[in-house]
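Need a sequence for this fold. Nothing fancy.
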């Protein structure tokens, strides 16, 4: 029996389901039951019936699954799979802004720890951030932790005062304008599809800005054949799978998320056997964090 067959067998025996983000390795996406971006996976996680959820992603995703499924066992193939941006804000920074503005809503990107969510009013993803922020009654919005997504949202909703701090995703921030321009010179008819976690200098070059799902949908529905993609390389698997006759070009300095790449088939098999690496969220902030996630699901309907 090969490793994929062993995983499938154990999944059935233990009533487990495997969720995977678009940024994990191809062979992990191949065996997953559900593959998607953070928004899709949180929606799925809130409706899943299985006893065990194996979450192939980074730790903030596992925490969100625990918050949405308090009675289920959520296990992570590698507990060290983490997102640096998820930690890039402090309570002091938030309090400082709150003191300055009387009426401010704290809007938290889902790529954040449960504790940071608990300091916030509502969670958003890159797929629903504009819609949710637009519908909030507050004029002043503190958008944490991603300053780049905050900048993108501010350009879509000029009537709001969007305040950002210094958080960013190092993988998207490192995508260089030179790399994208070089690709465009090489493939002049290519459309440039960009994730909003990229720097504004990259957003300025885009034909389409959106979540990984939006990027995949745009490429799939477009009559164009060539695409330059400014996001993590893992998304290439789905792009190519859904569009075998199209070409996808990524920056020469390949954007690779080290946390996502820690997930392997061997580690998935191991946690299915041992049920180790169970995620938990401290009682000190789980209730408050869950309210912000539930609010996102409600407001994005
Ligand atoms: S790609 Fe960036 S934002 Fe996404 S998990 Fe990796 S470090 Fe975090």
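Here you go.
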């Amino acid at each position: 029996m090969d490793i994929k067959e062993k995983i499938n067998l154990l999944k059935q025996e233990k009533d487990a389901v495997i969720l995977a983000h678009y940024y994990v390795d191809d062979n992990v996406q191949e065996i997953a039951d559900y593959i998607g971006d953070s928004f899709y996976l949180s929606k799925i996680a809130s409706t899943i019936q299985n006893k065990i959820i194996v979450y192939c992603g980074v730790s903030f995703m596992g925490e969100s699954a625990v918050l949405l499924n308090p009675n289920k066992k959520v296990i992570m193939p590698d507990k060290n799979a983490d997102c640096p941006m998820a930690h890039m804000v402090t309570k002091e920074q938030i309090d400082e802004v709150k003191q300055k503005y009387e009426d401010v809503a704290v809007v938290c990107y889902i790529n954040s720890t449960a504790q940071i969510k608990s300091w916030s009013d509502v969670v958003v993803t890159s797929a629903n951030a504009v819609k949710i922020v637009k519908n909030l009654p507050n004029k002043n919005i503190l958008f944490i932790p991603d300053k780049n997504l905050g900048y993108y949202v501010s350009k879509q909703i000029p009537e709001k005062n969007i305040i950002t701090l210094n958080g960013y995703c190092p993988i998207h921030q490192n995508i260089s304008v030179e790399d994208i321009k070089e690709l465009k010179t090489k493939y002049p008819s290519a459309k440039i599809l960009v994730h909003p976690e990229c720097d504004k200098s990259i957003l300025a070059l885009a034909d389409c800005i959106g979540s990984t799902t939006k990027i995949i949908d745009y490429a799939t529905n477009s009559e164009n054949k060539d695409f330059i993609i400014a996001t993590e390389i893992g998304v290439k698997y789905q792009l190519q799978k859904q569009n075998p006759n199209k070409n996808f070009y990524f920056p020469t300095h390949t954007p690779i998320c080290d946390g996502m790449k820690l997930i392997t088939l061997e580690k998935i098999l191991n946690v299915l056997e041992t049920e180790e690496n169970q995620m938990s969220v401290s009682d000190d902030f789980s209730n408050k964090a869950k309210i912000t996630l539930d609010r996102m699901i409600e407001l994005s309907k």
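For context: The chain has 15 helices and twelve strands.
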